[in-house]
Queue: 4 jobs
Job 1
Amino acid sequence: QVQLAESGGGLAQPGGSLRLSCAASGFTLPYYALAWFRQAPAQEREGVSCFSSSDGSTYYADSVKGRFTISRDNAKNTVYLQMNSLKPEDTAVYYCAAEYLIGTFRLGSSCYDPPSFGSWGQGTQVTVSS
């Protein structure tokens, strides 16, 4: 059973930075996607970024491209989301998610589709405000 635990959320000023961490464990297959989603109040959960363990490819939503960077520390089995140039509209609960690269899962499209992911962390709040 895959387990995910996020940390690193908090309060940042517009233009500031935060780094989120997601400690992952319990994988039984070698190839999987690790993704970050976010959900603002009264809004649908949206995909932010995705990482493939098979080839290291990364994917970003247009709204964060150039500002956010996803990366992984293999030794710690932890995926990070470095968030720079934060904007008030980045305020949301951020979730880490994981799914094996099998079946109908398709990198690029499934990365932004919450129902495509079967394992989720508990979420961490990010607030961008002056």
Job 2
Amino acid sequence: QVQLVESGGGSVQAEGSLKLSCSVSRNDMFSSRAMAWFRQAPGAEREAVAGISPAGGATFYADSVKGRFIISRDNGKKVLYLQMDSLKPEDTALYYCAIKKKWYGGKYWDRSDEYGTWGQGIQVTVFA
């Protein structure tokens, strides 16, 4: 069974930076699967933050994080990353990594029902 484990979360002051990692175990098909980061703030619905193609050549971002966050992956190490810079209090949420069921060339990258395997989530708190 595939397991996703997020790390790198924590508390940071506004304008600070954090880098999340998502390690994937027991998945020989890692390099053929698109992946993404989602987040969920208290009382809010889960929302897509950033997505990346299987080879890493194509990336996708929510408007709210464009220019501040960078998604990347290391297929050799089976790790997904999210570099978060210029953090804002509204970025506070539980962050999840997920593996997409099927690659449609970028379509539906932001739909949570297109992802079949999820991590347990990691807290990111940004204080003013």
Job 3
Amino acid sequence: EVPLVASGGRSVQGGESLRLSCSSSGFGFSEDDIGWYRQYPGSECELGSSIFRDEKTYYVDDVEGRFTMSHDKSKNTVYLQMASLKRADTAVYYCAATTEEPLYTDGFCTALAANYKWGQGTQVVVSS
């Protein structure tokens, strides 16, 4: 699988903002649907947000209004702007891209990684 590079995760205080980036390594993904999966400690992956090739976006309820995805096609980079962070947002965040498979809402991280263009995760820790 062609790797993606996720970055931007770090430790922050509750209420702060953070921006995650997902870049492709040597290819464009303007025709992909792209998602950010999150893996909570001891859990498997679940889809938190996505941006589709038509630039429509999807957010799960607990991040709706706080997180915003955008796609800078000139830089082959997708961003996840996270605001008003909560302790519950603490997770490893993975980005995934696909032109064929749908973005499943959840699953084993290893299985999702086999289906999509996938990268290493970036850790976000939110403390109160």
Job 4
Amino acid sequence: QVQLVEFGGGSVQGGGSLRLSCALSGDTITRRCMGWFRQAPGKEREGVAAIYTGGGSTYYADSVKGRFTISQDNAKNTVYLQMTSLKPEDTAMYYCAAGSIYGCYSPLWSPSRYKYWGQGTQVTVSS
């Protein structure tokens, strides 16, 4: 059974950095669309970054482009989200998700595109 576990959340001041990790078990991350989503209280879940681990193509939401970087480590079966220049509006629960083995397809930020989800890790950015 595929399971995802996120690590690395925490509290940071605005302008700071955090790196989130997502470890996948029960399957290999190679050749999967892996995504990071976030959900703030009272708001819908939104996609922030995705990577097709079969070829390394990456995708970012406009709100995080240039500040967040998604990457993979096949040896560790782990996907990362490096977050820099954090803003208070980045405060949310961050979730890792695993999708199709064939690629990352539109609508990329639809949660229904992803079959497996982690439990989430909280990121809080203070001003």
